[in-house]
Design a protein that fits this description.
It is a single chain. By secondary structure, the chain is an alpha/beta fold. The chain folds into two domains: 3-37, no CATH class; 48-246, P-loop containing nucleotide triphosphate hydrolases (Rossmann fold, 3-Layer(aba) Sandwich). Helices cover 57% and strands 9% of the residues. The protein contains ten helices and five strands, in the order αααβαβααβαβααβα. It has helices spanning 3-18, 21-45, 67-78, 99-114, 123-133, 142-147, 163-178, 192-200, 207-224, 235-246, and strands spanning 89-93, 118-122, 150-154, 183-187, 228-230. It has a five-stranded parallel beta sheet. Strand 3 (150-154), helix 7 (163-178) and strand 4 (183-187) form a beta-alpha-beta unit. The protein is globular and about 85 Å long.
């Protein structure tokens, strides 16, 4: 038998084998197992705290105060493969209204559904880790934060806006905007003007810091537009009151 005929026969046998139910079943099983391994790896590396390991849209408590944010984040995840490159979100509002919880749910769902390389990072923790990296105490998180497919920056406005902090923030935001990499930010501010005020009130009147803050916020407005404001009483207060009544 000629070599070409032998190769054709092998290809034909492989094609026939690939149609067998047991072969198809094994392939699907392998794909599912491989996907599960990838998903678990992404979950471990994304930085979400253990306490949120079961967080999802299905068990998120929807209330009038957070319904708008919930709907926006759920729609964002469901339309992930259709959204414009770099399309981002901002969740603003009082302490305890569920911003962090909802941001984490969004991050987890993107990983679970689409195997997105996502990162969750509280802003204060990010700068603490970056400073400690100077003394080789830990790895600098900022390079990965710049490049990941989706980023949650939690509690923007809580950090003291030194020149170094603003330089790092500008670098992260400019890089992600320029490369159309999406992100979600949360803040206790009620508006973009409020975020500017939160940052500049810690600046000790430094005009250069004020200009840097304005530039960062202008960039965020350009990319995100109107923030989603979550108002209402604190979830944490409700839990404490409920616990007290039970006792």
């Amino acid at each position: 038998m000629a070599l070409d005929d032998e190769i054709s026969k092998i290809i034909e046998n492989l094609a026939n084998m690939s149609k067998r139910p047991e072969f198809v079943s094994e392939c699907k099983k392998w794909e599912a197992e491989n996907r599960e391994i990838q998903m678990r790896g992404l979950m471990r590396s994304c930085g979400i705290p253990e306490g949120y390991s079961d967080a999802g849209f299905g068990n998120f408590t929807v209330e009038p105060s957070n319904r708008k944010g919930f709907n926006a984040c759920k729609q964002y995840v469901e339309n992930w493969e259709k959204i414009k490159p770099g399309e981002s979100l901002a969740l603003f509002g009082s302490v305890g209204t569920g911003k962090t919880h909802l941001a984490i749910v969004t991050c987890r769902e993107l990983i679970k559904r689409y195997l997105v390389f996502a990162k969750y990072m509280p802003v204060l923790k990010m700068f603490e880790m970056a400073r400690r990296s100077f003394d080789n105490e830990m790895a600098n998180p900022i390079p990965a934060i710049k490049e990941c497919d989706f980023l949650v920056l939690d509690d923007l406005g809580s950090e003291r806006p030194t020149s170094w902090v603003l330089e790092q923030l500008t670098s992260i935001i400019d890089h992600r905007v320029a490369n159309r990499l999406p992100f979600l930010i949360t803040s206790n501010a009620k508006s973009w003007v409020g975020l500017c005020q939160m940052l500049t009130q810690l600046s000790d009147g430094d005009d250069q810091v004020k200009l840097s803050v304005q530039r960062i916020v202008d960039r965020l407005v350009q990319v995100i537009g109107k923030p989603i404001v979550m108002v209402g009483s604190s979830w944490r207060s409700k839990r404490i009151e409920g616990s007290a009544r039970i006792r």
